[in-house]
Write a structure and sequence with these properties.
elongated; single chain; Immunoglobulin-like; alpha+beta; nine-stranded mixed beta sheet; transmembrane
């Protein structure tokens, strides 16, 4: 319990209640754990209110067998332990109404106040109402009293209303990213401005957090929910149903050979593999009947007879509310079970695993269309202005606009690169729809052209004169996202970053169903990146290097923490939850650090503009770039020439890069 208390103290300051705040436990998902035989359950809702020690329930079921006398086994699992595990003879409750089972639809709904003598307040600790993303479920197994054969088994996950997944966090990160994008566009006319680089760092950090939830490991429910706050950064926007996009993808897959389940608005929790959180059940589907023989805890046996007597009192009200059933409960079997990794993650945001690539593809297509449309609109505006205006400055801007557009096309490719690669590789492993596979190949080629072609041009120019990478203004603006953040001797460091992005994508996309390989390779990749940063020190200032090293350490430490989530290690649920809290806090701190670093860079830019023209004054950078193109080569390669703002070495412009403050 100490670990649970520590977990609560760490997480509660960062949370807001997901529903009206009161101490309550209620069912959040319901599913069969055994194929039904004698009893079909359509609805099973339950809630326990701590304030007045009362329970409310609503059950709808139908019996299909006659002359069957049933017993009931009730098991409650909380973080892998079983505080409740007891049996009931249904012939002794409700005045024998359920012995044998009546052959008709019946529905019961009521609220009951539990007596203090039952000791529920002592059995359910108060901390159970405060832990976010509670990992608990209640299981009701009905079995034949004569043969011990299980006739029905229903599992209902329990929730207290707290969660690390918050719509406020989702919308807040989206809003700040849009704000950072606008400022980055404004500042990117100066290839050495810090804001465009920090914008890319911010998006990549959000993507790193989201991708950290896609590994085939046993995440605690709390951490998995935390990563869902950033699913939008990898193109997985939770749809609202009915969703025209998801319906279109479902129809496309059905027409092109798709056989996997479609997207649904239902909760994915009920379909999660029972070995994983929030179930933490080391039992298979065929061993549920073994729970029938389990005895109740001694402290609960003393109140069991009083509970049976209490249930008998509600017989008249139950008989009065028989209504038609409301629909089926999901049947859990090997085919419908969601496995660790991408299937659980995508279904948790109401996107089927088979729809994941097409969702990312369509989202990326929308992003590309918006960027292309805005860049085309900007070109038309400058062209019209240059045609009708006499000012030389307008014509200079028009001439310098193409490299500006190329720079933002490259940034768009860098943002979309990992989502496209990860889900392309995953699509190849499931091979669900031939059209989706074809589109994934086209997407891969598009990303390759968008990133590799500028890299090739950069290499070709570097072979002639590395210093020229920073002295040709138009080329510098167009290729700034790749190398402008680094010192001239370390211009090639972007290759390491691209290598790491491709390697992570391969591990996540192709490594599904093998969490040990995924975690091991991710630790190795992050270690290589960190070592390269420490020894090469590619940035022009200590502050910029320190920030890059800090982010690399964050990724490495969190990847190392994920070792505890490997199923083969069988780490208990509570230690895994505590480790998940630590990882979530580490990533949250990184987001805050990057936020303040971005804002500090913005303040510095505004302050310097207020003092007069500096190298961060982006108001006339495009015109200056155009003029610099006509300057003598010796002047453009001189970092001390006052008329030329473009310097040959990143070493000579430390003021453009922020530090960690």
């Amino acid at each position: 319990m100490r670990a649970v208390a520590l977990l609560t103290l760490l997480v509660l300051p960062f949370l807001r209640p997901a529903r009206a705040r009161e101490d309550i436990l209620y069912t959040s998902s319901v599913s069969y754990c055994e194929p039904p035989q004698s009893l079909l359950v359509q609805q099973f809702d339950f809630a326990y209110f701590s304030a007045n020690r009362s329970v409310s329930f609503n059950i709808s079921a139908q019996s299909v067998s006659t002359d069957v006398s049933l017993g009931a086994n009730v098991l409650v699992n909380v973080y892998g332990s079983n505080p409740f595990n007891f049996t009931l003879d249904l012939c002794n409750v409700l005045g024998g109404l359920l012995c044998p089972l009546p052959v008709y639809n019946f529905q019961g709904a009521d609220s009951l106040s539990l007596p203090d003598s039952l000791g529920i307040a002592d059995i359910i600790p108060g901390i159970a109402f405060d832990i976010p993303d509670l990992e608990a479920y209640a299981q009701l197994s009905l079995y034949d009293m004569d043969t011990d054969e299980v006739k029905a088994c229903v599992q209902a996950t329990l929730s207290n209303g707290w969660s690390t997944r918050q719509r406020g966090v989702e919308w807040g990160t989206r809003a700040f990213s849009l704000f950072a994008l606008v400022l980055a566009v404004y500042a990117s006319t100066n290839p050495h401005s810090l804001l465009p680089f920090r914008f890319i760092d911010l998006i990549h950090l959000f993507q790193t957090i989201a991708f950290s939830g896609l590994l085939s490991i046993n995440y605690p429910f709390l951490y998995r929910s935390f990563t869902h706050n950033f699913s939008w950064a990898i193109g997985l926007f939770p749809p609202s149903f009915p969703s025209s996009m998801q319906n279109s993808i479902d129809n496309m897959r059905a027409l092109t050979g798709g056989q996997m389940p479609n997207s649904t608005s239902d909760s994915a929790v009920g379909l999660v593999n029972r070995r994983l959180s929030p179930y933490n059940a080391p039992i298979s589907f065929n061993s549920v009947s073994s729970l029938v023989a389990a005895s109740a805890p001694p402290r609960f046996n003393s109140g069991l007879s009083r509970f049976t007597q209490l249930v008998a009192e509600v017989q008249p009200r139950l008989l009065a509310v028989f209504i038609p059933s409301a629909g089926p409960v999901e049947i859990i079997n090997e085919a419908s079970t969601l496995q660790a990794g991408i299937p659980i993650y995508t279904n948790s945001v109401n996107i089927g695993a088979a729809n994941a690539f097409m969702t990312v593809f369509l989202t990326s297509l929308i992003v590309v269309a918006i960027v292309a449309g805005l860049l085309a609109l900007g070109y038309l505006v400058f062209r019209l202005a240059a045609r009708h205006a006499k000012a030389q400055r307008i014509r200079d801007w028009m001439s310098a606009y193409p490299p500006f557009a190329r720079g933002w096309a490259l940034r768009t490719a860098l943002v979309l690169m990992m989502p496209i690669l990860v889900f392309t590789f995953y699509q190849w492993t499931i091979n669900d729809s031939w059209l989706a596979v074809l589109l994934s190949v086209i997407s891969l080629l598009g990303i390759a052209v968008g990133v590799l072609f500028p890299s090739f041009l950069l290499f070709r120019q570097a072979r002639v004169a590395p210093a020229g990478l920073y002295s040709a203004p138009k080329t510098l603006i167009a290729n700034a996202p790749l190398h402008a953040a680094y010192r001239t001797p370390r211009w090639f460091f972007f290759i390491i970053n691209l290598f790491a992005m491709v390697a992570r994508s391969l591990v996540i996309g192709f490594g599904q169903n093998n969490g040990r390989v995924q975690v091991g390779f991710l630790v190795a990749i992050e270690a290589i990146v960190l070592i390269a940063l420490i020894f090469l020190r590619p940035h022009p200032t200590r502050g910029a290097d320190a920030l890059a090293i800090y982010l690399a350490i964050t990724r490495l430490v969190c990847a190392g923490l994920f070792i505890a989530f490997l199923e083969t290690l069988s780490v208990d649920a509570i230690p895994r939850v505590v480790i998940g809290v630590v990882a979530a806090v580490i990533y949250s701190v990184a987001v805050v650090v990057l936020f303040f670093n971005f804002m500090w860079a913005l303040v510095r830019m505004v302050f310097r503009r207020g003092r007069g023209k500096t190298s961060d004054d982006v108001g006339s950078d495009l015109s200056i770039v155009e003029k610099a193109e006509g300057a003598p080569i010796t002047q453009r390669h001189s970092s001390s020439a006052p008329a030329t703002p473009v310097r040959t070495s990143m070493d000579s412009r430390p003021q453009h890069h922020g530090t960690i403050h």
